[in-house]
Every structure is written in C-alpha cells, then in structure tokens.
Design brief:
The chain has 232 residues and is of the alpha/beta class. It contains seven helices and seven strands. A seven-stranded mixed sheet has the order 3-2-1-4-5-7-6, with helices on both faces.
Amino acid sequence: MRGIVRKFPGMRLLRGGWPDEARAIIQTPVFRQILKEHKVLGSCLNAGCGEGLFVSFLNGFNGLTRIVHLDLQAPLFSQLPDARHEVIGGSVTDLPFKDGEFDFVLSTEVIEHVEDDTKAFREISRVLNPGGLALISTPTPPAPCDPAHVREGYTLNELQSAFVGANLRLLEHRFCMHVTMRSLLRIWRWQYELTGQRKSWMPRFVILIMAWTDRLFPFGKPFDIVALGQKI
C-alpha cells in the first residue's frame, strides 16, 4: 500500500485527516487580516506550537529575524524553513526566556488548555518588549466540547479583562470557525469515541472540503476568537 501511495500521491487525500489542518486553513487568512496594518518584526515566539501548523505562516514574515517554536516537549519537526527557526521545550506558564526577549508572540488554541491561565497571560506579556504584539486565538462560547480543555473558552469581555490583567491593550479582534467547522469537530469526536482510538477515519479530502467551505462561506454563530494585543 505504501508503494501505491507513493506512485499515486493523490491517494494521500484518502488517508485519515485531522481537524487541525482545517483550523489552519480557516485561521491563517484571519491572522493575516488582523496583522495587515501592523509591523511584525524582530524576535517571535510561537508559544504552544504543537505540530507546527503555523511554521510556514510565520516564515512568511521577512522582518522576523528569530522564530522560536515552543511546546511542553521540544517539537520534533522533520525540517525547518531556514536558520531563523529554533525549537525548545517549555511551559507557557513558566517561559524559559528573559523579560522583553520577543517583539511578537503567537499562541493559537493554547490558553483554554492551561489551568492557570492568568499566569500564562502574564508570562506572554513578560517576555514581550513594550509595544510588542501578542496574537492569541481561543474558543469562544458556545464552543464544541473538547475534554482536553479546562474551560470552554473566553467571551470578548473575558479575553479583554485577561489582557488588561497582563498589561496588554486589546487592539483588534476577529471571529472565525462557523457551522461547517462545528459539524466537522462533532463528526470527528463521534468517530473517535466510537472506535476508542486516537485515529481519524475521516478521509483527508473531506476535512479539506469542509475547511474551505467554512473559510469561504462563514455561516452561523462563530466559536473561535482571534485577538491582537499590545504590551503597554
């Protein structure tokens, strides 16, 4: 089967897909839009980078001179685009960096997993230079249930309060992920619970179709918020 897949690359679309790939498709243009009027320069921290969904997105900012990808365990990426990129292990509640070390922090779908979210927000702010930018995405209620989350998410008011407590000024926000993405997550969760295996039986092409549908036709109540803050 592996030989057949190599011979016919299109068959990779039949392999099991993962919702994170759909999330990247939907969120990337939202990130670009919210950052369009702001300069992303200098050192960047990708806090809670996971499997590296946004490595390419960050690599597209030519003004970034250093890009650090951090997760609880140092991520094992097969390759990184260039020498600007680094990987390191560490917690968002105890970042292994000095005060003001970064000019830009990206943290996507991380804070809702953190028990001490107040400390996480303060740590993100601590490692930012005054005037530095933090781009954070997180679910906003009502959001699909995820047992890995310690909270459902944040309303805009709750997120703004968290920013204020961390000495961050909310500059802009956008909402994303709508009915189609909500349906995708419910279906994926159903098949995961049914099989009891951490394996996706949803063909990748279905994931991609639903992602692009949600991106191009955002219909219904959104369940994700993207917020841009600036260190005061």
